[in-house]
Amino acid sequence: MPRPRGFEQEAPPPAREWPISGRSARRAQRRPFVDAEWRSLAPPRAVGRSSLSGGKLAAAAVAVAEQRTRRAASRVRIVVTKAPTACWNRGSPLPRFSCGLRVGRTGRRDPDNRSLKDTMFARGLKRKCVGHEEDVEGALAGLKTVSSYSLQRQSLLDMSLVKLQLCHMLVEPNLCRSVLIANTVRQIQEEMTQDGTWRAVAPQAAERAPLDRLVSTEILCRAAWGQEGAHPAPGLGDGHTQGPVSDLCPVTSAQAPRHPQSSAWEMDGPRENRGSFHKSLDQIFETLETKNPSCMEELFSDVDSPYYDLDTVLTGMMGGARSGPCEGLEGLAPATPAPSSSCKSDLGELDHVVEILVET
Amino acid sequence: CGRELFSWQLHCADIISTVEFNYSGDLLATGDKGGRVVIFQREQENKSRPHSRGEYNVYSTFQSHEPEFDYLKSLEIEEKINKIRWLPQQNAAHFLLSTNDKTIKLWKISERDKRAEGYNLKDEDGRLRDPFRITALRVPILKPMDLMVEASPRRIFANAHTYHINSISVNSDHETYLSADDLRINLWHLEITDRSFNIVDIKPANMEELTEVITAAEFHPHQCNVFVYSSSKGTIRLCDMRSSALCDRHSKFFEEPEDPSSRSFFSEIISSISDVKFSHSGRYMMTRDYLSVKVWDLNMESRPVETHQVHEYLRSKLCSLYENDCIFDKFECCWNGSDSAIMTGSYNNFFRMFDRDTRRDVTLEASRESSKPRASLKPRKVCTGGKRRKDEISVDSLDFNKKILHTAWHPVDNVIAVAATNNLYIFQDKIN
């Protein structure tokens, strides 16, 4: 693999006088480092053919610099630029966020003229809207009955599951990250179990011990440390080239009106109220394991609560005088979520998401 | 008497992934995402150039690791250099260990400034001489030549890690070193490449029960039998290799009890330790988790003796940081030579320095502006709420793409190296 790139040094500005204060024997007491008044001075050294003006010092500098340049040049080509502004991060990619849900609304700029994408409040992906008017109403009604804390917890859970699914698709998933996300998911599940949230939906599962319902790390992140199943890349790649929306398989299950609470877990309409927690998880993981483009779409479409609103609510909460440390979701007072009309997603954003997924 | 402060900014073709000074501080090694190692050397103080002392210039560049393909798992192994550690210098050559996710290499960096001239069988340009033309014998003589720095791989330690290597640490006996991946720690001898000893293994029999991974490990600077390793749950275990061959049972267990009032779903993630470093004295160790830096006394396991908040203003943004994966960023930390100050990085190209004696801290920025002549490196401040003052930056304007994960401090002087994505900044505080 060719490695033509080298290390580029910023050239100094034109010649300048150095304060020749001489080396005094008296050493000032060393101030603590944090006190130091840092001043930056561009280096006066000449590297290669620089524009330093003449003078003995400059000549000596050039000689030494040339020696070093030659030495270094024998290993790699060093690009010397005259102007300090010449090469600045040109062509080098900044680290990308691995979570595809980072997609924000482009075009808006905050007062500091920075795209929203770069800042804290990158909005999450706008979910595909349910589509039917009655569903929207039903969802709204459902939302009102469920506390926003549960919604947010649900959103966090969904976000975590999607992250784990992206684990499946990454070439070499980061084990530490996977374990941390899996632990978070487990925490949420524990709490949901203790809350009795799931018992309400699946009474026949009440006799199960909570531990049974806890998802093991292995299931959550199977591909992370056990290579099983088909590779997702080809599937996604095909989906991408043919057009993300058109190629996505239609959802196999009926899109029946859902309980907003259990919406994330239900893949099939008819089995909606029957499915126990465990079963629903199995469905999820089946979906995850098939690793085709439709599963991502399913995962997104099943969540009613607007994903990005987690942030809105959190922001809103933080804006109101809270001086203490944030307690995350647990510290939030119930707040009315934003209307779900804004959860309609553009095809363009879906495009973008699939593109990101394909590229990661 | 004046105070001269220098800064250098160097642009790298790739993202810098590790920075390390050697034991004397004369050499500074950086590794990048493309598998390259670049070594800088400090210029010797020279009477003819009094103002140039202490500059770091490129000394050697070499390709340490190449991307590989694991055919068994159908996975590509990244060539990104995760860590570089220098060996103490024992002769004219310098040695360092560099590692990517799977393979550790020992490199020898040596200078050549003489070459032999006057061979009998070869011409000066290397062509073989016709033996019949040789009428007299001569003794080759050594002549000085332009200084050439060569790097050659001396040992390759491979195939010992199933998971990604996150740390390497050279032992104080200068003969062995450890390498740690997510679940195991291996002990190597520098001379032996086909064997390593597994000294810690936290892989559960049933992978379904995996909830904790190793995040960093380091040998004690003076006691060759002691090492520590940190975990993703915010705990540090100190192990003594004399107690047993497999150090699964720790000798000391450091964990700070959780504050129940600040518990959230993100508590565990932000407690995950990204770096652990012993102090030069060997009496303390420092750990970096997502929001803070903690200094521990090795004799007290119950809680740290100091806790320094790095960017507490991010605590209320944890959900967004989780969403964009920034919460998984692994920041490093470092001590200064006298253990009186510690430094670590943050976002927006900010880095923080804490003075342990005076209990003061400062936030500085590594940026182009700081490299302008006569521009002073102003302490920065992040505004957390309410009215923003003129020089402050609000939390919402921070650029989370610009993170400083890797910093290094000269072992003796006040020279620091800060890696900001593709750029390396060297700041030097010199008293004239």
Automatic annotation (TrEMBL), chain B:
Gene from which the chain derives: PPP2R2D
Any one Gene Ontology molecular-function term assigned to this protein's record: protein phosphatase regulator activity
UniProt entry keywords in alphabetical sequence: Repeat, WD repeat
Phylogenetic lineage: Eukaryota, Metazoa, Chordata, Craniata, Vertebrata
Coiled-coil portions: none
InterPro entries, alphabetized: PP2A_PR55 (IPR000009), PP2A_PR55_CS (IPR018067), WD40/YVTN_repeat-like_dom_sf (IPR015943), WD40_repeat_dom_sf (IPR036322), WD40_rpt (IPR001680)
Highest taxon, organism lineage: Eukaryota
GO cellular component terms, semicolon-separated: protein phosphatase type 2A complex
Pfam families: WD40
Family per similarity comment: Belongs to the phosphatase 2A regulatory subunit B family.
Protein name: Serine/threonine-protein phosphatase 2A 55 kDa regulatory subunit B
